Amino acid sequence: MITAPKLRYNSRMTRSKVGANDVDTLTDAVLTASRLLVAVSARSLAAFEETLTLPQFRMLVVLDSRGAMKLSSLAELLDVNPSTVTRMVDRLVTTGMVARQPNPATRREVETELTDEGRRVVRGVTRRRRVAIEKIVGSMPVDERRGLVDALTAFTEAGGEPPADLGWI
Q1: Cα–Cα distance, 133 to 33 (Å, whole number)
Q2: Three-class SS string for 84-152?
Protein backbone atom coordinates (compact mmCIF):
# COMPACT_ATOMS: atom_id res chain seq x y z
CA MET A 1 0.00 0.00 0.00
CA ILE A 2 1.32 3.41 -0.96
CA THR A 3 0.73 6.33 1.34
CA ALA A 4 1.78 9.91 1.17
CA PRO A 5 5.00 10.52 3.10
CA LYS A 6 4.81 12.47 6.34
CA LEU A 7 6.52 15.82 6.05
CA ARG A 8 8.91 16.97 8.76
CA TYR A 9 8.21 20.61 8.25
CA ASN A 10 5.10 22.72 8.03
CA SER A 11 4.36 22.45 4.31
CA ARG A 12 1.44 24.88 4.54
CA MET A 13 3.75 27.57 5.89
CA THR A 14 6.24 26.91 3.07
CA ARG A 15 3.50 27.01 0.42
CA SER A 16 2.06 30.26 1.72
CA LYS A 17 5.47 31.93 1.33
CA VAL A 18 5.96 30.82 -2.27
CA GLY A 19 5.44 33.44 -4.95
CA ALA A 20 5.00 32.68 -8.64
CA ASN A 21 8.52 33.97 -9.32
CA ASP A 22 10.25 32.01 -6.56
CA VAL A 23 12.00 29.60 -8.93
CA ASP A 24 14.23 28.02 -6.25
CA THR A 25 11.35 27.12 -3.94
CA LEU A 26 9.21 25.88 -6.84
CA THR A 27 12.13 23.82 -8.14
CA ASP A 28 12.60 22.25 -4.70
CA ALA A 29 8.88 21.38 -4.59
CA VAL A 30 9.02 19.78 -8.05
CA LEU A 31 12.16 17.82 -7.13
CA THR A 32 10.45 16.53 -4.00
CA ALA A 33 7.34 15.57 -5.97
CA SER A 34 9.49 13.88 -8.62
CA ARG A 35 11.14 11.71 -5.94
CA LEU A 36 7.69 10.53 -4.94
CA LEU A 37 6.68 9.88 -8.56
CA VAL A 38 9.92 7.98 -9.26
CA ALA A 39 9.28 5.85 -6.17
CA VAL A 40 5.73 5.13 -7.36
CA SER A 41 7.09 4.22 -10.81
CA ALA A 42 9.77 1.96 -9.37
CA ARG A 43 7.25 0.14 -7.20
CA SER A 44 4.91 -0.23 -10.17
CA LEU A 45 7.71 -1.82 -12.19
CA ALA A 46 8.78 -4.06 -9.32
CA ALA A 47 5.21 -5.31 -8.88
CA PHE A 48 4.98 -6.18 -12.57
CA GLU A 49 6.20 -9.57 -13.71
CA GLU A 50 8.66 -8.08 -16.20
CA THR A 51 12.19 -7.09 -15.29
CA LEU A 52 12.60 -3.54 -16.52
CA THR A 53 14.64 -0.57 -15.48
CA LEU A 54 13.08 2.88 -15.28
CA PRO A 55 15.05 4.05 -18.35
CA GLN A 56 13.85 1.03 -20.34
CA PHE A 57 10.28 1.70 -19.27
CA ARG A 58 10.69 5.36 -20.26
CA MET A 59 11.75 4.17 -23.72
CA LEU A 60 8.63 2.01 -23.98
CA VAL A 61 6.46 4.97 -22.96
CA VAL A 62 8.12 7.23 -25.55
CA LEU A 63 7.55 4.64 -28.29
CA ASP A 64 3.97 4.16 -27.10
CA SER A 65 3.20 7.88 -27.16
CA ARG A 66 5.15 8.90 -30.28
CA GLY A 67 5.20 5.81 -32.46
CA ALA A 68 8.03 4.14 -34.37
CA MET A 69 11.23 6.13 -34.74
CA LYS A 70 14.90 6.03 -35.66
CA LEU A 71 17.40 5.21 -32.93
CA SER A 72 18.93 8.67 -33.22
CA SER A 73 15.55 10.34 -32.63
CA LEU A 74 14.89 8.04 -29.69
CA ALA A 75 18.31 8.86 -28.21
CA GLU A 76 17.60 12.57 -28.57
CA LEU A 77 14.20 12.31 -26.87
CA LEU A 78 15.64 10.24 -24.03
CA ASP A 79 18.69 12.55 -23.81
CA VAL A 80 21.18 9.66 -23.98
CA ASN A 81 23.92 8.56 -26.36
CA PRO A 82 22.87 6.56 -29.43
CA SER A 83 25.01 3.65 -28.20
CA THR A 84 23.00 3.58 -24.97
CA VAL A 85 19.74 3.44 -26.93
CA THR A 86 21.15 0.65 -29.10
CA ARG A 87 21.95 -1.46 -26.03
CA MET A 88 18.54 -0.74 -24.49
CA VAL A 89 16.78 -1.66 -27.73
CA ASP A 90 18.86 -4.86 -27.99
CA ARG A 91 17.66 -5.91 -24.53
CA LEU A 92 14.04 -4.98 -25.23
CA VAL A 93 14.07 -6.82 -28.57
CA THR A 94 15.08 -10.02 -26.75
CA THR A 95 12.08 -9.60 -24.41
CA GLY A 96 9.73 -9.09 -27.34
CA MET A 97 8.70 -5.59 -26.19
CA VAL A 98 10.17 -3.70 -29.17
CA ALA A 99 10.96 -4.60 -32.76
CA ARG A 100 13.28 -3.20 -35.39
CA GLN A 101 12.17 -2.75 -38.97
CA PRO A 102 13.40 -0.91 -42.06
CA ASN A 103 12.02 2.60 -42.35
CA PRO A 104 9.40 2.34 -45.12
CA ALA A 105 10.29 5.84 -46.37
CA THR A 106 14.04 5.31 -46.82
CA ARG A 107 14.65 1.57 -46.32
CA ARG A 108 18.25 2.45 -45.34
CA GLU A 109 17.30 3.47 -41.83
CA VAL A 110 16.03 1.20 -39.12
CA GLU A 111 13.08 2.17 -36.96
CA THR A 112 12.25 0.88 -33.53
CA GLU A 113 8.63 0.30 -32.61
CA LEU A 114 6.65 -1.02 -29.70
CA THR A 115 5.23 -4.52 -30.04
CA ASP A 116 1.92 -5.76 -28.65
CA GLU A 117 3.87 -7.16 -25.69
CA GLY A 118 5.48 -3.75 -25.12
CA ARG A 119 2.05 -2.09 -25.18
CA ARG A 120 0.76 -4.67 -22.70
CA VAL A 121 3.63 -3.86 -20.33
CA VAL A 122 3.15 -0.08 -20.65
CA ARG A 123 -0.56 -0.41 -19.93
CA GLY A 124 -0.07 -2.77 -16.99
CA VAL A 125 2.58 -0.64 -15.30
CA THR A 126 0.61 2.54 -16.02
CA ARG A 127 -2.52 1.05 -14.42
CA ARG A 128 -0.54 0.26 -11.27
CA ARG A 129 0.95 3.76 -11.22
CA ARG A 130 -2.49 5.28 -11.70
CA VAL A 131 -3.90 3.39 -8.70
CA ALA A 132 -0.97 4.49 -6.53
CA ILE A 133 -1.22 8.12 -7.64
CA GLU A 134 -4.99 8.12 -7.12
CA LYS A 135 -4.41 7.09 -3.50
CA ILE A 136 -1.93 9.91 -2.99
CA VAL A 137 -4.13 12.53 -4.67
CA GLY A 138 -7.15 11.20 -2.78
CA SER A 139 -5.35 11.81 0.51
CA MET A 140 -4.79 15.48 -0.36
CA PRO A 141 -7.26 18.02 1.02
CA VAL A 142 -9.82 18.88 -1.69
CA ASP A 143 -9.03 22.60 -1.63
CA GLU A 144 -5.36 21.84 -2.29
CA ARG A 145 -6.13 19.77 -5.41
CA ARG A 146 -7.73 22.67 -7.29
CA GLY A 147 -4.64 24.10 -8.95
CA LEU A 148 -2.80 20.81 -9.37
CA VAL A 149 -4.07 19.99 -12.88
CA ASP A 150 -3.26 23.44 -14.24
CA ALA A 151 0.16 23.51 -12.60
CA LEU A 152 1.14 20.02 -13.76
CA THR A 153 -0.18 20.64 -17.27
CA ALA A 154 1.84 23.85 -17.55
CA PHE A 155 4.90 22.05 -16.17
CA THR A 156 4.70 19.15 -18.64
CA GLU A 157 4.02 21.48 -21.57
CA ALA A 158 7.07 23.57 -20.63
CA GLY A 159 9.13 20.36 -20.58
CA GLY A 160 7.84 19.22 -23.99
CA GLU A 161 6.04 16.10 -22.73
CA PRO A 162 2.99 15.19 -24.82
CA PRO A 163 -0.25 14.66 -22.92
CA ALA A 164 -0.87 11.08 -21.87
CA ASP A 165 -3.56 9.33 -23.89
CA LEU A 166 -4.90 7.08 -21.18
CA GLY A 167 -8.27 6.34 -22.75
CA TRP A 168 -7.29 2.66 -22.77
CA ILE A 169 -7.18 2.44 -18.96
Answers
A1: 11
A2: HHHHHHHHHHHHCCEEEEECCCCCCCEEEEECHHHHHHHHHHHHHHHHHHHHHHHCCCHHHHCCHHHHH
Domain count, the chain: 1
67 belongs to a structural domain: yes
Residues 69-124 have pLDDT tens digits of: 999 999 999 999 999 999 999 999 999 999 998 877 787 888 999 999 999 999 99
**Does residue 3 lie within any of the structural domains?**
no
In degrees rounded to 5, what are phi and psi of residue 113? -140, 155
pTM, to two decimals? 0.74
Assess contact for 11 and 28: CB atoms under 8 A: no
